[in-house]
Amino acid sequence: MKLLTPSTSKQVEPAFLPPDFNASSGEGSLSLSESDNDIPEKKWKISPEKWICAKSSKVKHSNLNSIITEKLELLILLQRMSKDSMTEENNDCIKNLELETKQVSTDTKCVYCDDEEHGEHGSKKNTKCINLSEDSTDSGYAWVILVSAFFLEVLTGCSLTSFGIMMVDIIDSTEQRASNIAFIGALLSSFLGLSGVLLGPIVHRFGCRVVVFSGSLILALCCLTTFLVRNVIVYYFSMGIVSGVGYSCYQLGAPVAVSHWFQKKKAFSLSVIMTGISVGSMLWGPITRLLINKYSWRGAVLIIGGLQLHGCLIAAILKPGPLLSKSLLEKKRSSRFNKEILKNKRFIIYCFSNFTLLYGHVVPFMMLPIKAESNGISKMNAAVLVAIMGACSTTVRPLVGYLGDKAWFDKNFVFGIFSILGGILTSASFYMRTYNLLIIYACLFGMISATYIPLTLSVAVEIVKKPEFIANGLAIILTVHGLATLVSITAFGTLDYVQLKNNCEKDTVFQHFTQSVHIQNALATTYESTGDRWRTFSYRKAAAAVKRYPRPITSFEEALAIPGVGERVANKIWEIVETGGLRKLEELSNQEDIKAISTLSGIWGVGQTTARQWVSQGIKTLEDVRNKAKLTRPQQIGLKHYDDLLERMPREEAGRIDDFVREKCLGIDADLVILCCGSYRRGKETCGDVDFLITHPDGKSHHDLLPKIIKRLGSFLTDHLVSLQQKGGQSKYLGVCKLDEEGAKHRRIDIITVPRDEYACAIMYFTGSAHFNRSMRHLAGKMGMSLSEHSLNKGVVRKRGEKLNPGVPLPTPTEESVFKHLGLKYLPPNERDH
DNA sequence: GGGCGGTACTG
DNA sequence: CAGTAC
DNA sequence: GCCC
């Protein structure tokens, strides 16, 4: 996913280090110490044993210092900007600068070292000297640093990769527009790059150890916040801006640390940690997907936050190296902006073209997982696509860097060709829908963009020409990149989620298509009122199938081909697609009776039979019911809480009910196992009710437990609908509860106690969804088994529906074991929606 | 043409 | 027993 | 209503 963010991490990372350019580094802070270090390196050759460093001379040479600093500042900027797109021009330019700088500083015969930071070298009193023998760099502890920095980069690779992967889940669960969520990614990528500039001075001041440590804490805190808070505005900060800053701490820390420890093998060591980013961006995709599958995206965020705390460990390992030079690092950089550059028309035009280039580049990248999933590709395989794209781009980058250095390499030509190729590919991607094609797309896009994105900078250098403007020019281009990223992703505000998710070509078809789902459901509801149970059943099934269908339906035949959609429903779908409506539904829903029936059957305990009877007796409104109808006890309760009980509660409220009930139950017996199932366990953002499943590990204490629980819950339970149901070893309570909070509403609550050996099957059953249970039962039946809330039985003998032999229960200690018996791979609750 | 889950509560 | 809900 |  790193590829996606041309304006950020990418460019800031040293993607390739020309062998002759040993001072290249990822960050300005780094470059400063390095170029400083180049001085001792030269001297080494003269006196390899020891280096005398006269710290006091710093004062005398303050003038020189400012010259050095000034040169170095330019050097920093140049290196930062050009890193992986090193071209002859700016390479030369930098080399000249280096040379100059070296001369100036060798003249002073002075190297500034910091003797406080590494006691073992410099703490000897009176000898303001530091031993910079070869032993202190490139070996020993340096390798520990290298490994740590490598893992730090692996952690960094998490940033955009995992965000891209979880974007679909976030959109689904927050029910926000895709653009709103994508904007988080835009912020993340922008701040990843932007804060690199801001953090530079901080690294200078406090060293990379502190920065990495804070980065780690920041990230963990961000993840925790994201986990706890359910507010998209907060995510803009917790997942976007602040996370971006956290990751840039890592991104800065690793190369800086390495550069403090490696002298001769600096290029090598920096390449090694770059590999860390590639490895990271490949690993995090699938890892994130797996975590989401098991714990939902919030859980995944929390776990990732925990994993990011490893940064603290790494920070502890990153002790300041022998090559650190604090005194120079503390120098401020003054960057002056030269307006002359804006008079270069070619450059201005180039800026605009870069804007459009990046505009078109970012979106397909960011949207790859969504595109894949909308074409029916599994979420895991979508994650693999991202990994493939990352792998391809990170493989090609060093190659481009290497070739870019060759004299015969015409970067203007290559840049032009590849950006056109990228455009063609992006256009063509509309037609790529199968997994194989998308794999090819991911590879090509990864490679092509890895080619032209770094080249944007080299070409800029060529256009700017004058060395004194290069730094400004590159800064402008990078700003343009960042702006394009932000704007392009924000522009998605014009598209809504459904369109995006279905990769829409014809807007109208889409609208009608999504409408058809609602209409099918409406038809189902209508028929429910008229009492045709099985027709209702089929409409619902068809509506669910259409909802899952990843593409717009463009023909009658296509509709007919969907399982669950027969000729009659396909006809209706086609009518909806063509006309946007359905006459049959209009007729039915305009009948007053039918509306009345659906209103009345909203009362808990009132079904279509009762409702229809009432309507035929002239009882058509809730007011009529209250005055005239004869109500059962549960129906009275249902009527009393009519509005509350029809409303779904926010997930977070279900969570608080969970906490409350859990605590009360543990007060009875601390060994009780309490699980809140239903849509809550499936990770839904709203829940119609809460289902508690309670068991006792000793296998027998569940007897007589339920009455105690009900008593214990006291006035939390406001009404009892069905006080006790017994079947087998299970007991079930259905009731109404209300939290003791300001403005709390009444909610439906079910509590079930089960024997330990039925626990797994009970969890499965009460987690649902209803449709999922149905398909599981069906599958079990086909395999000669039967699945119920009590057990999974095998050896069931059925004869024309009647089962002659109930079979024997299979041991099912866990949900996984149930899936295993049925020959299925485990499905986490959040994937059991159908 | 028959199945589409099987069962326990309320009245 | 029918009706309802899980 | 759909599917076997």
Describe this structure in words.
The chain is an alpha+beta fold and 834 residues long. It has five domains: 193 residues, MFS general substrate transporter like domains (Growth Hormone, Chain: A, Up-down Bundle); 130 residues, no CATH class; 120 residues, DNA polymerase beta, N-terminal domain-like (DNA polymerase, domain 1); 108 residues, Beta Polymerase, domain 2, CATH 3.30.460.10; 70 residues, 2-Layer Sandwich (Beta Polymerase, domain 3), CATH 3.30.210.10. The chain contains 35 helices and twelve strands. It has a five-stranded mixed beta sheet, with helices on both faces. It has a three-stranded antiparallel beta sheet with strand order 8-9-12. A two-stranded antiparallel ribbon has the order 1-3. The chain binds three DNA strands through helix 21, helix 23, helix 26, strand 5 and helix 34. It is found in: Membrane; Nucleus.
Which secondary structure elements does this structure contain, and how are they paired or packed?
Elements: H1 6-12, H2 28-46, H3 57-60, H4 62-82, H5 88-108, H6 119-122, H7 141-156, H8 158-174, H9 178-228, H10 232-261, H11 266-308, H12 310-317, H13 326-329, H14 345-374, H15 379-404, H16 411-428, H17 435-464, H18 467-490, H19 497-501, H20 507-530, H21 533-548, H22 556-561, H23 567-579, H24 583-590, H25 592-600, H26 608-616, H27 622-628, H28 633-640, H29 642-646, E1 649-650, H30 651-668, E2 673-676, H31 678-681, E3 686-687, E4 689-695, H32 705-713, E5 717-727, E6 730-737, E7 747-753, H33 759-767, H34 770-782, E8 785-787, E9 792-794, E10 797-799, E11 802-805, E12 808-809, H35 815-821
This protein binds three DNA strands through residues 524, 527, 532-539, 541-542, 563-569, 604-610, 632-634, 691, 721-727, 732, 734, 750, 752, 765-766, 770, 773-774, 777-778, 786, 788-789, 800-801.
EC number: 2.7.7.7
GO molecular function, one term: metal ion binding
Region (Disordered): 1-37
